[in-house]
Design a protein that fits this description.
412 residues, alpha+beta, Helix Hairpins, Heat Shock Protein 90, 3 domains, five-stranded mixed β-sheet
Length: 412
């Protein structure tokens, strides 16, 4: 975080962010399953329409309008009765033959219309069945992709031990799953090696740093030492203390990257209160008021690591505050099945594009780790790693007028 003074007013917030814009109808998202269903159903409808057209043309050709299969050649007092056609009651043979031809043409047209109507109804019904069948078949075909997606989501939660292990025929999907498993194996080995290196290096550095601190304290306890030596010893002791904080932070960061296995009930309100007690002296020295209501919020996790989250956030909120009339608000609550810890403060204005950089190790607002006496730049990195290890997340938002709102959400 920055030590620069706050500008007179916060920068205006953008009215629309194209990256965070949601589609107007998220429930009709064109997934692959929907597209395959439309493809299967559309092909069936096209084939059905073509088949219907061919049948209709063949039927129309077979029932081609023409002369009647019989004619009345001659006769007297000929009487013809029909319930569906209009024929003259009496007349000569030609009139009766014309009436019979018109009647047969009407019957043929009626038969074609009936065939077309029933065929269309059958096509609609079969199309509905085809779409439903296509949706089910698409889901069955794409089920391995769903398994790959679920595994990828678990891996994104820092659980690199998950594998797909897809069974079935040796097709393209199984090849993709096996390739993904191989990639996870390499990532897990690299990640484990990195954690082991950081832990070993930090452990190796702790011993000489402890020896240096002891030697400096012994020299500073000598009342006969010159003033220049005392001043140099204090400077070296402060530098040694920063190095020890850095090593401890690296150790905690390496440990918190793993998922928490041994979980116990922990009350976030109690954790936040203990963190406030540890930071109260520094807050009073800087004339920063700590306030906020802390409701009961029990989660399953590691109490020491969760306390480190609260302590890091409270210390940052106290250290990076306004020179006068500053405050820090610490609240806990249960919301939507999650325990929420919120730490907000007054302070310098933080641009939205700088938020992600604050969670990187050794990074602060517009500065690197050097040139500051407020820490080693690992506080927010550790907080994010601990939150992820507990299956939660931490979000930082710029506060109107300056400062930050840090929101930690953990599953209960």
């Amino acid at each position: 975080m920055a030590t620069t003074p706050a500008p007179p007013a916060a920068p205006p917030k953008p009215t629309w962010d194209p990256r965070g814009a949601e589609p107007p109808f998220p429930w009709v998202r064109p997934t692959i399953r929907i597209r395959l269903t439309l493809l299967y159903g559309g092909m069936f409808m096209i084939a059905g329409i073509l088949l219907l057209s061919i049948i209709y043309l063949l039927a129309a050709t077979a029932l081609h309008s023409g002369n009647a299969p019989f004619k009345i050649l001659s006769g007297q007092n000929v009487t013809v009765s029909s319930g569906s056609c209009q024929v003259p009651a009496t007349g000569n043979a030609q009139e009766f033959n014309d009436a019979i031809s018109r009647c047969m043409a009407q019957q043929r047209q009626h038969a074609l219309d009936s065939l077309l109507t029933r065929s269309l109804m059958a096509l609609v019904g079969l199309s509905v069945i085809a779409f439903a069948f296509g949706y089910a078949m698409a889901g069955r075909v794409l089920s391995p992709l769903g398994r790959i997606t679920r595994t990828a989501r678990r891996v994104a939660g820092t659980d690199l031990t998950r594998r797909i292990e897809l069974d079935g025929p040796d097709d393209e999907l199984k090849e993709l799953a096996d390739t993904f498993d191989d990639m996870l194996d390499r990532l897990e080995r690299a990640f484990t090696a990195q954690q082991r290196f950081v832990a070993n290096a930090s452990h190796e550095l702790r011993t000489p740093l402890a020896i240096n601190r002891t030697l400096l304290e012994v020299h500073l306890s000598d009342p006969g030492a010159p003033v220049e030596l005392h001043q140099l010893g204090k400077t070296l002791l402060a530098t040694n203390e920063r190095s020890e904080q850095l090593v401890e932070g690296l150790l905690l960061l390496a440990r918190s990257e793993n998922e928490i296995v041994d979980r116990k009930p922990v009350d976030l309100a109690e954790v936040a209160s203990r963190a406030i007690d540890q930071a109260r002296g520094e807050a009073q020295a800087k004339s920063v008021e700590i306030r906020g209501e802390r409701a009961l919020a029990v989660v399953q996790g590691n109490g020491v690591l969760l306390e480190r989250i609260a302590l890091n956030l409270v210390q940052n909120a106290v250290r990076y505050n306004v020179p006068q009339d500053g405050w820090v608000s610490v609240t806990t609550e249960l919301k939507d099945g999650h325990a929420v810890l919120v730490v907000s403060n007054t302070g310098p204005v933080v641009p939205a594009y700088e938020i992600d950089n604050l969670f990187e190790p050794f990074r602060r607002l517009r500065t690197e780790r050097t040139g500051s006496d407020k820490g080693v730049g690992l506080g927010l990195s550790i907080a994010r790693s601990v939150a992820r290890a507990h299956g939660g997340r931490i979000i930082a938002e710029p506060r109107e007028g300056g400062g930050l709102v840090m929101r930690v959400t953990l599953p209960v």
